[in-house]
Amino acid sequence: MNDSLYDEYLKIFKEKKIKLTNVRQSILKILSTRRHFTVNELISELENEIENVNIMSVYNNIDLLLELHLLFANTINGKQIIYEAISPQLTHLKCHKCGKFDHIASSSLDNELLLHLKRITESIDFDLEHFKLELHGLCSDCKK
Fold first, then answer.
1. Beta bridge partners of 33
2. Which of 12, 26, 41, 86 could potentially form a cystine with 37 if both were Cys, beta carbons 3.0 to 4.6 Å apart?
3. Is 8 known as a binding-site position?
4. What is the CATH number of the domain that holds 9?
5. What does the DSSP 8-state code read for residue 37?
6. Whole-angstrom Cα distance, residue 142 to residue 65?
7. How open is the CA angle 93-41-72, to the nearest 5 degrees?
8. CATH number where 98 lies
9. Which of 85, 103, 132 is the last residue of a domain?
10. 95 annotated to a ligand binding site
């Protein structure tokens, strides 16, 4: 688990005076350990930790996290929704042949992009807080 991310989530909930239920804490722990997840994957992990998972509670918590801007929802091929924790920069790679979906993990690239995008958005009087970029092409396996 990414303790600093989990602690950051707890701090936000406390600042906003949002009750930290057992389900909510478990969801935040999972969110701080997973790069991407679907609702079904989240429910499966919760069922390993908690007896009697209320599915509606899971959906309500996802809605809350989206509303608090702590979670991104990514739609893959217009069908599947994959969630992930928000970070200041998200750069995804999507293979259009096999459908593989992954991150570029490069803080120097992300910082360069952020600076460039901030210059662009400032020129139109827009304050950029974070960005999500999706690049499409062929993964190394599909190129073989």
1. none
2. 41
3. no
4. 1.10.10.10
5. B
6. 35
7. 50
8. 3.30.1490.190
9. 85
10. yes
pTM: 0.66
Q: What Rg do the C-alpha atoms of the chain give, in angstroms?
A: 17
| DSSP assignment of 39-63 | HHHHHHHHHHHSSS--HHHHHHHHH
**Phi, psi (degrees; rounded to nearest 5) at 112:** -60, -45
Closest of 58, 69, 7 to residue 32, by C-alpha = 7
Domain that holds residue 102: 89-143
Q: For the chain, first and last CA: distance in Å?
A: 35
Contact 87, 111 (CB under 8 A): no
Helix (H) or strand (E) holding 24: helix 22-31
CA separation for the pair 39, 71 (Å, rounded): 12
Which parts of 19-139 are beta strand (E)?
71-76, 80-85, 89-95, 101-103, 131-137
Which of 64, 85, 106 corresponds to the end of one domain? Answer: 85
At residue 57, the pLDDT reads 93
Tokens of 95: 């293979």
pLDDT tens-digit series, residues 43-100: 999 999 888 899 999 999 999 998 888 888 877 767 778 787 766 566 778 888 888 8
